[in-house]
Amino acid sequence: MRILLVEDNPGDIRLLQEYLKEGSAAGGFQITQVGRLSTGLERLAEARFDAVLLDLALPDSQGLDTLVRLHGVAKDVPIVVLTGIEDEALGVRLIQAGAQDYLVKGQVTGHLLTRSLRYAAERKRVEEELGESEARLRAILDNSPNLVFLKDTQGRYLHINRQFERAFHISCEAIAGKTDKEVFPAEQAAAFHANDLKVFQAGVLLEFEEVALHDDGPHTSIVFKFPLYGGDGKPYALCGITTDITERKVMEEALRQAEEKYRSIFDNAVEGIFQSTSSGRYLSVNPAMARMYGYASPEELMGSVTDIAHEVYVDPDCREALTRLLERQGVVRGFEYEVYRKDGSTIWISESVRAVRDGGGTILYYEGTIEDITERRRAEEERKRLAAMIESSNDAIMSLTEGRVSFWNPAAEKLFGYSSEEILGKSVNILVPSHLLGEVERNVERILRGEQIQDYETERVRKDGSIVPVSLTVSPLKDAHGKIVGPFAIIRDITERKRAEEELQRTLGELRTLSRRLEVVREDERTRIARELHDELGVRLTCLKMDLSRLRPSMNEASRPKLEETVLSMIEQVDTTIAAVQGLVAELRPGVLDDLGLVAAIEWQCLDFERRSGIRCLVDSSEEDIPMDSARATAAFRICQEALTNVVRHARAKEIRVHLDKLDRELLLEIHDDGQGILPEKVTDARSLGLLGMRERAGAVGGALRIVGLPGHGTTVTLRLPCE
C-alpha cells in the first residue's frame, strides 16, 4: 500500500514509520512523509495514494479544517486521522467530515495502525463499489420500460424512475414527499393506497391490476408491490414495478369474442388446450388442462399461476428452451417436460405449441395443446432401472402406478399368462379374485403410507381364469425425489407348497376323523359293556343274593348257625361285587348322563371326584339342564373328567370351581382351580397328550377349548360348545 504521512512531529514520524515498517514486512507499505498540509495536497495531485495518515495539528493548518481541506481535494482516498485528544464527540465529527477512522496518539500500536489503514482502504473500496452498484441500479431502473417507484410507510414517494416521470409528466424531485392523493385522482389514489396497505399487512410480494389515467386515456397495468425491510426486520418502504397491459387487455377482449365461436370444442376436448403470454401468464386454458394440473376449474389455474416458468415447470430452463425454439421456428411439436400439479405432485406432458404474431412479427401469445405422458415416462424409467435384475428373476415382479400395472417381467408373464402388452396399463384388479378386491385396496393404502408387506399369502387369477396361490412381498416404490409412486411386488407361486400343505391337512383330517370314529366306537363299546354289566351280570348277582336269602329259613336248627354264617358271607361278597359292577358301569358310561342330562352328570362327577380325591369341588349352573345331543354331552362330560384328573395329577389345588351356563345357544363350561397354574409353554406342548385329546374332543363336535394358566393363581379351562 502507498501511504501519505502528513505529520510534522519528528518523534511521531519516527514511531509511525517504525510501525509501518513492521507492517511492510507482513504486507508491504510505501511511505511518503510530508510536514505541511500544502505539501500533502501537492503530493496528492502528483501521485496516487492508497491511504492518508493525517495529523490535525500542522504548521499551516489546525483542527477539523485540516481534514476538510484534505478531503475536499482527495475524496477518493481514505483518510485516517491522528489526534492527541481522546474525545468521542470529536471522533464523530471527524467521521462525518469524511475520515475513514481516527487514532489517538499515545494509544497507537503497530498492529492497530496497520489494521486501521488496511480497513480504511478496504472500506473505501467497498464504498466505491457500492456507489458503482447504485449507479448501475439507477441506470437499469431509468432505462427500464416498466414504471418503478418507491414509497415510505406513510405513502410518500421517495423515488421514481424516468419511465414514471415520462408517463405522468412529473420529476423525481417534484414528486418526492408527496402521496398518491396529491398526484392522482381521488378514486385512483384510494385504490393505490388500499393495495399498498395489503402489501404491508402481508409482508410479501403481491400482484395487482391497477388503472391509471394517462394522456391518451385510462391504462391498465400489472403492478408488483413488495415491502423493503431494514436491519431491524421492520418494513421501511414499498417498491412497485408496473407493466402496462392495456394492449393485452384489448387483445384479451378480441380473444374472448373469438373464443365464443369455439367454446364447445375447447371445453370438451380430451387434451389440454391453452393460450399464454411470453411473460409467463395463462390467457386461457380448457377444463381438460385444469383437471390435468389438478385444479377445479380453468379460472383457478389461471388465477393461481402468474409465472409459468417457475410455478409450473419443474425445470424453469425448459421454458426458456421452448421459447427460444418458438422464436426461431414458430412451431414446436412433441416438446416433453415435467410440470407441477396443484398438490405439488408432478406429471410429464408433451406439448405442441405455436407462436401467434401480429402483422409486424411481434409475438402476441402462444397457443397449443398438451398431453399427459406421465405413465409412459414412468414406465420407461421403471423398465430401465429394474430391467437387469428383473429379467433374470424366477419370481414374478410387477409394479403399480395409481392402481394400474406399470411393470411386468417375463416371470410374471409365465405365471399369469399375460404378456406385457396385454397387462400394462390395466387395473391390477384383473389379477384379483372378486372377493379379494377389498384386501388389495387395503394393502395398497398400507404401501402408500410407507409400510412393507412380507410373505403375504393370498390368491390371484391367471389369464385362463384359474386360481393360483401366491406369496406376496410388497414394498413402496419411490422416485428420484423419495416420493412413493406406487407398490412394487414380488410374487411367488406357492402351488406346490400349498399342495403339500393340503396333503398334510388331508392326512391330519383323516387322522382326526379316525380318532373321532375310534372315540365313538370306544364310547359305544363302553356303553355296551356298561349295559351288559348292568343288565346281565348285575341282574344275575341280584338273583343270586335273593336265592341265598331264601335259603336261611329252610335251614334246620342243627346246621343253621354254620350255614347262616356262610350265607351271610356270600351275601356280603355279592353286595361288594354288585357295588364294583355299578362303579364300573358308572366309569364306563354314567347312567345319570343319559337319564338326567349333562348338568346332573357333571354334579355327580364332581361329588364323586371330591369323595375320591379329597379336593373340594363346587358346581354352579344357571340352568337345571342344558339340552344337547349325546355326542356333545359326552364330549363335555369327558373334557370335565380329564380336567379334574389333570388337577389331581399336576395342580396341587385345594379347591375347584365348575361353572355351567347357556349363552345364546352355546354351552359355556369353565373349570377353575386354585393350584400352581399351568405354564404357557405347556399349553401348546405337543407332548401334552391329555390337553391335545381335550382339544380334539372339543373340535370334533364343533367346539372350542381355551386353557389359561397364571403361575401361583391356578388354571382355567373354558369350553364353548354349540347346543344345537
Question: Any chance you could write out the topology, listing elements then pairs?
Answer:
Blueprint: E1 2-6, H1 10-26, E2 30-34, H2 37-46, E3 51-55, E4 57-58, E5 61-62, H3 64-73, E6 79-83, H4 88-96, E7 101-104, H5 110-143, E8 147-152, E9 157-160, H6 162-168, H7 172-175, H8 186-202, E10 206-214, E11 217-229, E12 235-244, H9 246-268, E13 272-276, E14 282-285, H10 287-292, H11 298-304, H12 308-311, H13 316-329, E15 331-340, E16 346-357, E17 363-372, H14 374-391, E18 396-401, E19 404-408, H15 410-416, H16 420-423, H17 437-448, E20 453-461, E21 467-478, E22 484-493, H18 495-554, H19 560-588, H20 591-595, H21 598-613, E23 616-621, H22 630-651, E24 655-662, E25 666-673, H23 680-683, H24 689-700, E26 704-709, E27 715-722
Helix pairs in contact: 1-5, 18-19, 21-22, 22-24
